[in-house]
Amino acid sequence: MSIAIPAEDPRHLPNRAVVDLGAITHNTRQIAGSLAEQTALMAVVKADAYGHGMLGAARAALAGGATWLGAAHPASALALSRAGIDVPIFTWLYDPRTARELLPAMISASIEISVGSRRMLELVSEAARESDLRARVHLKIDTGMGRGGALPEHVLELGVRTREDENLNLVATWTHLSSADALGEDTTDRQIDIFDSICEDLTEEVGPIALQHVANTAATLSRRDLHRDLVRTGIGLYGYAPVPTDLDLRPAMSLTSRIAMVKEVGAGQSVGYGRIHTAATATRLGLIPVGYADGLDRAASGAVSVLVRTRAGDQFAPQVGRISMDQIVVDLGPDSAAREEDEVIIFGAPDALDAPAAGAPEITGPRLDPPTAEDWARAAGTIPYEILTSLSVRVPREVRSPAAGDAA
Ligand SMILES: Cc1ncc(COP(=O)(O)O)c(C=O)c1O
């Protein structure tokens, strides 16, 4: 096996994805504090914790009151367990080949496993028998999402088989909501009606099942009645709310860069591939060395602003022209105080940038809140989830941990 070595020394790159673990702890605490009394919080840390770094994010969420962890891939679940994190870990997305290879290790590590088909049930049962252990199984019911999980007409049979199998311990039923963020629609209610009715039949058939879980962040924030025994929250922990909320959620990731060049141009100067932007008047353009190869969405071209931290204070600068592979151009305006090397927040949290170096001139002007992944998502016609998980390996991650006792 070969291990990739980064081709570029991160010290020589101006861009950073600054991850604030204190914000994840804070957000988890906010959400945990809003749950129904009997409800536990599963921190969803799939996709490298939505790009924030799985192990750090998992520990930060546990510090904020999460008591479960959830990861789509078994390999992530195993990595959490092997890192010595000793809480229930749930995983739900595996193919038969991966399952045959990883199930024995997963069952030995007490990882809780979703089952949504006869085939998966057999694989889990076989691996448990070979390991001489009982696997903890969560039965997944497809109530309308149409992805994984057993269709309603197959659930009873699957439930009976699971309960009768001495290698398996049926501990939960669960489903995933397709439209929990669509507050005006009745889709969620229809899914829940199906779920509740099947769970009732199942209980009659096989006896009580300890846990139910259905809610993602949107349902956690908007439907207390859906908290059940466990909520599976992801995006909220990272500071984004798919539905309106009174909770104080703070973006945990900031993408920062520095101005590489400032150029005074006259009216009529066009910018970038395809010349989709032309300066209407004389202005100052700022070149920022971050582009779609770093994870910016090219579809957002010309529709977002960045925050530039100049000596005279913060200013917004609209991004102009097409987003290129390695760079973007922003219109600083004719009177901007921005200079080369000034720091830029592409999206994120107000305190993302470094404290000024010793001897650096003091910033005297106003401080502004930077754009967010939500702003980028709106501009690109996507969702903050995709903005956060799209940052490429080319962007060095800089993880900030709160000082002890500091993560209130
Ligand atoms: C099965 C499952 N549960 C929970 C979540 C968390 O969703 P959210 O990030 O919207 O809270 C996801 C993420 O998409 C998921 O796939």
TrEMBL record:
Q: Which family does it belong to?
A: Belongs to the alanine racemase family.
Query: Catalytic activity annotated for this protein?
Result: L-alanine = D-alanine
Binding sites annotated in the UniProt record for substrate: R147, M325
Q: What is this protein called?
A: Alanine racemase
PANTHER family per the UniProt record, alphabetical: ALANINE RACEMASE, ALANINE RACEMASE, CATABOLIC-RELATED
Q: In what residue span(s) does the Alanine racemase C-terminal domain sit? A: 252-400
Q: Does the keyword rRNA-binding apply?
A: no
Ranges that cross the membrane: none
